[in-house]
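Issue: ligand-bound run for flavin-adenine dinucleotide - logging full I/O for the record.

Environment: standard queue, default settings, no custom constraints.

Inputs:
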Amino acid sequence: MANLPRERLSIAVQAVASAQQALNLAVGYANQRVAFGGVLSDLQSVRMTLGEMHTEVAVMQQFTDRCVEALNDNDLTAPEAAAAKYKATEVQWDVLDQVLQLFGGYGYMEESPIARMWRDARVQRIYGGSNEVMKDLVGRDVVMSNRDKQSRLARL
Ligand SMILES: Cc1cc2nc3c(=O)[nH]c(=O)nc-3n(C[C@H](O)[C@H](O)[C@H](O)COP(=O)(O)OP(=O)(O)OC[C@H]3O[C@@H](n4cnc5c(N)ncnc54)[C@H](O)[C@@H]3O)c2cc1C
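Outputs:
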């Protein structure tokens, strides 16, 4: 039990790294794949998708880094680790699924790196404690903190 926050944070770190790598591959592909007379990145909708994914990964990276610092200071709480695990793996899944879409049929083929990254991303939301259970863990902490606060106020 004591090692669960560390395990969950390690899954979050891997999720962010995987999402960033997929994004790097997607940007490279969008800049070189020619369809309908131009490269994919000439299309505004493709740039918007890339911009959205870039933002999601950057925000997740910040939270995950903060949790790593907390772990190094022996300060990482179980709810923080659960939040990092569930959110990072959801971001990873969303990014991988959109990147596979961007790669088209090639992205689905086993020889494409994206296909293997996409398949491996799927289990991240299950192991280390399923994401539904992670959300409940965070929710219990939120509820209990509020109850403690209310009972302290009631004693004043
Ligand atoms: C590839 C792989 C490697 C693994 N490696 C390890 C390992 O090294 N060590 C180890 O101990 N375990 C390992 N596991 C087990 C893993 O941690 C569990 O699969 C995971 O915790 C989910 O438990 P479960 O499979 O029993 O699903 P269940 O607990 O049966 O859950 C089934 C579904 O019900 C949902 N659910 C369950 N409880 C709730 C709830 N309270 N509220 C809402 N929804 C709920 C779940 O989210 C899930 O969608 C591994 C699993 C896989 C797939």
